[in-house]
Protein backbone atom coordinates (compact mmCIF):
# COMPACT_ATOMS: atom_id res chain seq x y z
CA UNK A 1 0.00 0.00 0.00
CA UNK A 2 1.83 3.10 -1.26
CA UNK A 3 -0.82 5.68 -0.33
CA UNK A 4 -3.32 5.96 2.53
CA UNK A 5 -6.88 5.27 1.41
CA UNK A 6 -9.13 6.04 4.36
CA UNK A 7 -9.21 8.59 7.15
CA UNK A 8 -10.61 7.97 10.63
CA UNK A 9 -11.40 10.58 13.26
CA UNK A 10 -12.38 9.20 16.68
CA UNK A 11 -14.28 11.84 18.68
CA UNK A 12 -11.80 13.94 20.63
CA UNK A 13 -8.74 12.44 18.92
CA UNK A 14 -6.47 13.33 15.98
CA UNK A 15 -7.15 12.11 12.46
CA UNK A 16 -5.76 8.66 11.56
CA UNK A 17 -4.82 7.79 7.98
CA UNK A 18 -2.37 4.92 8.43
CA UNK A 19 -3.77 1.46 9.32
CA UNK A 20 -2.25 -0.54 12.15
CA UNK A 21 -2.42 -3.66 10.04
CA UNK A 22 -3.42 -4.65 6.49
CA UNK A 23 -4.38 -8.36 6.45
CA UNK A 24 -4.93 -8.13 2.68
CA UNK A 25 -4.70 -5.49 -0.07
CA UNK A 26 -8.41 -4.76 0.43
CA UNK A 27 -8.79 -4.94 4.22
CA UNK A 28 -7.38 -2.67 6.90
CA UNK A 29 -7.40 -2.64 10.70
CA UNK A 30 -7.07 0.48 12.83
CA UNK A 31 -6.28 -0.06 16.53
CA UNK A 32 -7.31 3.12 18.33
CA UNK A 33 -6.70 3.98 22.01
CA UNK A 34 -10.12 4.42 23.68
CA UNK A 35 -9.02 7.81 25.01
CA UNK A 36 -6.72 10.51 23.72
CA UNK A 37 -3.26 9.47 25.05
CA UNK A 38 -2.26 13.14 25.30
CA UNK A 39 -5.23 14.25 27.40
CA UNK A 40 -4.85 14.92 31.14
CA UNK A 41 -6.71 12.42 33.40
CA UNK A 42 -10.17 13.63 34.30
CA UNK A 43 -10.41 16.14 31.46
CA UNK A 44 -13.40 16.28 29.13
CA UNK A 45 -11.41 14.78 26.26
CA UNK A 46 -10.05 11.91 28.38
CA UNK A 47 -13.36 10.03 28.23
CA UNK A 48 -13.56 6.99 25.91
CA UNK A 49 -14.82 7.95 22.47
CA UNK A 50 -18.20 6.63 21.35
CA UNK A 51 -18.23 7.73 17.71
CA UNK A 52 -15.77 7.62 14.83
CA UNK A 53 -15.82 9.31 11.42
CA UNK A 54 -14.60 7.23 8.47
CA UNK A 55 -14.03 8.84 5.08
CA UNK A 56 -12.33 8.30 1.74
CA UNK A 57 -9.26 10.48 1.42
CA UNK A 58 -9.21 13.04 -1.41
CA UNK A 59 -7.93 11.56 -4.67
CA UNK A 60 -9.03 8.02 -3.78
CA UNK A 61 -12.08 6.38 -5.38
CA UNK A 62 -13.58 2.93 -5.30
CA UNK A 63 -13.69 0.91 -8.52
CA UNK A 64 -17.03 0.05 -10.11
CA UNK A 65 -19.13 -2.40 -8.12
CA UNK A 66 -17.41 -1.93 -4.75
CA UNK A 67 -17.92 -0.10 -1.47
CA UNK A 68 -16.06 0.03 1.83
CA UNK A 69 -17.64 -1.95 4.67
CA UNK A 70 -16.91 -0.69 8.19
CA UNK A 71 -16.65 -3.11 11.13
CA UNK A 72 -16.13 -3.02 14.88
CA UNK A 73 -13.67 -5.81 15.65
CA UNK A 74 -13.86 -7.45 19.08
CA UNK A 75 -11.82 -10.27 20.64
CA UNK A 76 -13.11 -13.85 20.43
CA UNK A 77 -14.97 -15.29 23.43
CA UNK A 78 -13.38 -18.56 24.60
CA UNK A 79 -16.50 -19.22 26.67
CA UNK A 80 -18.47 -19.42 23.42
CA UNK A 81 -15.84 -21.53 21.72
CA UNK A 82 -14.69 -18.66 19.52
CA UNK A 83 -11.13 -18.66 18.24
CA UNK A 84 -11.25 -15.75 15.79
CA UNK A 85 -12.22 -12.09 16.30
CA UNK A 86 -15.81 -10.96 15.85
CA UNK A 87 -16.66 -8.45 13.12
CA UNK A 88 -19.77 -6.34 13.77
CA UNK A 89 -20.95 -4.57 10.63
CA UNK A 90 -21.47 -0.84 11.29
CA UNK A 91 -22.21 0.44 7.80
CA UNK A 92 -20.35 1.52 4.69
CA UNK A 93 -19.06 4.34 2.54
CA UNK A 94 -18.59 4.63 -1.19
CA UNK A 95 -19.73 6.57 -4.28
CA UNK A 96 -22.35 9.10 -3.21
CA UNK A 97 -21.56 8.58 0.49
CA UNK A 98 -17.86 9.21 0.88
CA UNK A 99 -18.00 9.62 4.66
CA UNK A 100 -20.11 8.69 7.67
CA UNK A 101 -20.15 8.83 11.45
CA UNK A 102 -20.42 5.46 13.20
CA UNK A 103 -21.43 4.80 16.78
CA UNK A 104 -19.16 2.28 18.48
CA UNK A 105 -20.11 2.93 22.11
CA UNK A 106 -17.72 3.96 24.92
CA UNK A 107 -15.04 1.36 25.48
CA UNK A 108 -16.33 -0.84 22.67
CA UNK A 109 -14.04 -3.70 21.80
CA UNK A 110 -11.87 -3.25 24.90
CA UNK A 111 -13.47 -5.79 27.21
CA UNK A 112 -11.15 -8.70 26.51
CA UNK A 113 -8.08 -9.34 28.68
CA UNK A 114 -5.23 -7.17 27.44
CA UNK A 115 -7.42 -5.54 24.80
CA UNK A 116 -6.66 -1.86 25.32
CA UNK A 117 -7.61 -0.53 21.88
CA UNK A 118 -10.82 -0.13 19.92
CA UNK A 119 -10.27 -1.86 16.57
CA UNK A 120 -12.07 -0.61 13.46
CA UNK A 121 -11.93 -2.71 10.29
CA UNK A 122 -12.41 -1.35 6.77
CA UNK A 123 -12.91 -3.83 3.95
CA UNK A 124 -13.48 -3.20 0.23
CA UNK A 125 -16.34 -5.47 -0.77
CA UNK A 126 -19.12 -5.94 -3.32
CA UNK A 127 -21.26 -2.78 -3.34
CA UNK A 128 -24.57 -4.64 -3.54
CA UNK A 129 -23.68 -6.73 -0.49
CA UNK A 130 -22.67 -3.65 1.50
CA UNK A 131 -25.79 -1.75 0.42
CA UNK A 132 -28.03 -4.68 1.38
CA UNK A 133 -26.56 -4.89 4.88
CA UNK A 134 -26.80 -1.12 5.28
CA UNK A 135 -30.46 -1.27 4.31
CA UNK A 136 -31.06 -3.88 7.01
CA UNK A 137 -29.51 -1.43 9.52
CA UNK A 138 -31.74 1.35 8.27
CA UNK A 139 -28.81 3.54 7.21
CA UNK A 140 -28.32 5.53 4.00
CA UNK A 141 -26.54 3.42 1.41
CA UNK A 142 -23.78 4.62 -0.91
CA UNK A 143 -24.72 4.77 -4.55
CA UNK A 144 -24.30 1.20 -5.76
CA UNK A 145 -22.07 1.12 -8.81
CA UNK A 146 -22.89 -1.20 -11.66
CA UNK A 147 -20.94 -4.43 -11.31
CA UNK A 148 -18.19 -4.76 -13.86
CA UNK A 149 -14.99 -6.59 -14.56
CA UNK A 150 -12.68 -4.12 -12.85
CA UNK A 151 -9.99 -5.13 -10.43
CA UNK A 152 -11.86 -7.00 -7.71
CA UNK A 153 -11.54 -5.56 -4.21
CA UNK A 154 -8.98 -2.90 -5.14
CA UNK A 155 -8.91 0.84 -4.67
CA UNK A 156 -7.77 2.92 -7.59
CA UNK A 157 -6.42 6.44 -6.93
CA UNK A 158 -7.70 9.10 -9.30
CA UNK A 159 -5.01 10.17 -11.78
CA UNK A 160 -2.67 7.46 -10.54
CA UNK A 161 0.03 8.70 -12.82
CA UNK A 162 0.10 12.05 -11.03
CA UNK A 163 2.46 12.31 -8.10
CA UNK A 164 0.49 12.30 -4.84
CA UNK A 165 1.46 14.08 -1.60
CA UNK A 166 3.18 11.89 0.96
CA UNK A 167 1.23 10.44 3.89
CA UNK A 168 2.85 12.90 6.27
CA UNK A 169 2.09 15.94 4.10
CA UNK A 170 -1.55 14.88 3.60
CA UNK A 171 -2.01 14.34 7.34
CA UNK A 172 -0.45 17.73 8.10
CA UNK A 173 -2.81 19.48 5.70
CA UNK A 174 -5.90 17.83 7.20
CA UNK A 175 -4.74 18.72 10.71
CA UNK A 176 -3.95 22.29 9.62
CA UNK A 177 -7.41 22.63 8.11
CA UNK A 178 -9.02 21.46 11.36
CA UNK A 179 -6.76 23.59 13.54
CA UNK A 180 -7.45 26.77 11.59
CA UNK A 181 -11.21 26.25 11.94
CA UNK A 182 -11.34 25.00 15.53
CA UNK A 183 -8.89 27.50 17.02
CA UNK A 184 -11.62 30.15 17.20
CA UNK A 185 -13.80 27.83 19.30
CA UNK A 186 -11.33 27.06 22.07
CA UNK A 187 -12.21 27.68 25.70
CA UNK A 188 -10.43 27.09 28.99
CA UNK A 189 -11.14 24.58 31.75
CA UNK A 190 -10.63 25.47 35.44
CA UNK A 191 -7.12 24.03 35.07
CA UNK A 192 -6.44 26.49 32.21
CA UNK A 193 -6.40 23.71 29.61
CA UNK A 194 -7.76 24.70 26.21
CA UNK A 195 -10.65 22.55 24.97
CA UNK A 196 -12.81 22.50 21.84
CA UNK A 197 -16.57 21.70 22.05
CA UNK A 198 -17.73 18.58 20.19
CA UNK A 199 -20.27 20.76 18.36
CA UNK A 200 -17.44 22.79 16.88
CA UNK A 201 -15.74 19.61 15.65
CA UNK A 202 -19.00 18.45 14.04
CA UNK A 203 -19.34 21.84 12.32
CA UNK A 204 -15.75 21.58 11.02
CA UNK A 205 -16.43 18.10 9.70
CA UNK A 206 -19.53 19.27 7.77
CA UNK A 207 -17.55 22.09 6.16
CA UNK A 208 -14.55 19.83 5.48
CA UNK A 209 -16.75 17.15 3.88
CA UNK A 210 -18.51 19.78 1.74
CA UNK A 211 -15.12 21.09 0.60
CA UNK A 212 -13.95 17.58 -0.32
CA UNK A 213 -17.12 17.02 -2.36
CA UNK A 214 -16.87 20.30 -4.27
CA UNK A 215 -13.07 20.34 -4.65
CA UNK A 216 -11.65 16.80 -4.12
CA UNK A 217 -8.11 17.86 -4.92
CA UNK A 218 -7.80 20.83 -2.57
CA UNK A 219 -5.64 18.95 -0.05
CA UNK A 220 -3.24 17.94 -2.81
CA UNK A 221 -2.42 21.57 -3.58
CA UNK A 222 0.21 23.39 -1.60
CA UNK A 223 -1.87 26.40 -0.66
CA UNK A 224 -3.52 27.82 2.44
CA UNK A 225 -6.23 25.52 3.78
From TrEMBL:
Residue ranges of domain Hikeshi-like N-terminal in the record: 9-138
Top-rank lineage group of the source organism: Eukaryota
GO biological process: protein import into nucleus
Domain Hikeshi-like C-terminal: residue ranges: 166-221
Gene Ontology molecular function, alphabetical: nuclear import signal receptor activity
Entry GO terms, CC: cytosol; nucleus
PANTHER family per record: HIKESHI FAMILY MEMBER, PROTEIN HIKESHI
Family (UniProt): Belongs to the OPI10 family.
Name of the protein: Hikeshi-like domain-containing protein
